[in-house]
Design a protein that fits this description.
With 490 residues, this protein is of the alpha/beta class. It is built from 20 helices and 18 strands. α17 crosses α18.
Length: 490
Amino acid sequence: MPHKILIVDDDESIRFVLNKALTKEGYEVTEAKDGVAGLASLKTGGYPLAFMDIKMPGMDGLAVLEKMKDAGVGTYVIMMTAQGTMRTAIEAMKFGAFDYITKPFDVDEVKLLAQRALENRAMAEEVANLKASLRERYEVGAIVGQSHVMQQVFKDVGRVSGTDVTVLITGESGTGKELIARAIHAHSKRVGGPFVVVNSAAIPSELMESELFGHEKGAFTGAAGRKTGKFEQASGGTLFLDEIGDMDINLQAKLLRALQEKEFQRVGGTETIKADARIIAATHRDLDDAVKAGRFREDLYYRLNVVSVHLPPLRERKEDIPVLAEHFLEKTALEIGSIKKSISPKAMKRLVEHTWPGNVRELENCLKRAVVLSSSAAILPEDVEVLMKGAQEPASPACDQTLEGFLEERIRCYIKKTGKLGTDDLYASVIALVERPLIISALIETNYNQLKAAELLGINRNTLRKKVAELGIPLLKGNGRPGASPDGKG
């Protein structure tokens, strides 16, 4: 569909020349002989671009621009004038014109200017759509929680999003601190900028300075070239410092200076780099205790804790578990391309009774595995009983005992159900029992990347694909779209 362009000029010869030139380029051109007629046409909508003369009888071009702004008309306007003075240019741009050209003009220049204006507008619309998409994705209402404590969290997010203040998000592991940080970013004026994450617990302390501030070539062994740090990458957007409580005490002073001065130097460099990034930090640790113990700088703590948002553990908001469960069942169905499973009242009762040491993350993992492993249309109590023991935090010291208990319970169930004690039958059943959830767990942990899942399992990709086909395990197409076949061809 061709772009529509409006030409507003009281000079009929100018309208004729522009109409002919732009029509040849494939545009749909309409004319208006004065500012009043031009404004009326623009208000009807449908014109992404207009060429408009500044000096016209009745209502001049600058007056039209002002009224367009008041009426919320988003048409890009290129002003035309025979008075190529600085004052004219300044006035035109001040009133919101995209650009301006002086008469007499070159037709080829007009064509290029029209193309540039339309491309710029398309780009602006794309950015606006992206911002809207981000806001929708991280809409506070889309973060599930109906309890009073979560409603207070949503209010806090709303209050801080419109400002640039530093925010400290606290809460146990698995409560959704990064999701809240992303929601704050998505509703801030920085939504069009990057959201950069640094996890202090996941990066060795000796590498963290380079990760944050970057380094110059030859700064240390292995520094083969210049590296841009996270602070620099986040300029114009948000830098999320996750698990800040785990940061090495020696690096905290450099971080404090970067926060205060909004400048830093790369490792091995002498150039001062300025970066304007909004800071959101998060931790599962008690920073008050860390300060008292000398593990965390008091001045950095107060610098980060301008506004705090605390996420309660799931055990303190059990009224949210049913709505969270329904949310995760729907999400999992979309991910694996299946019909959404229901959950029986007894299974829901068990979910509500559980203490969920791994919080929301543990609940999601438990339900995701239950959906994949359950053969019935509804999630039953037995589908979640054992999984609630096995879906806790990976770093839990009870991991080995949990796995052992998982196997013991399933083996006892098998013997009780079948009455078979034959070694071959039992071994085959145990292998099948372990193999399927192992492969499913590896796929889930790697976001269904078969190559990474195979590496995690210690097998090659062909073996994994063969096992996936044999066991009838559903995959994600293109690492995220439902419906892939085991060979990955869809």
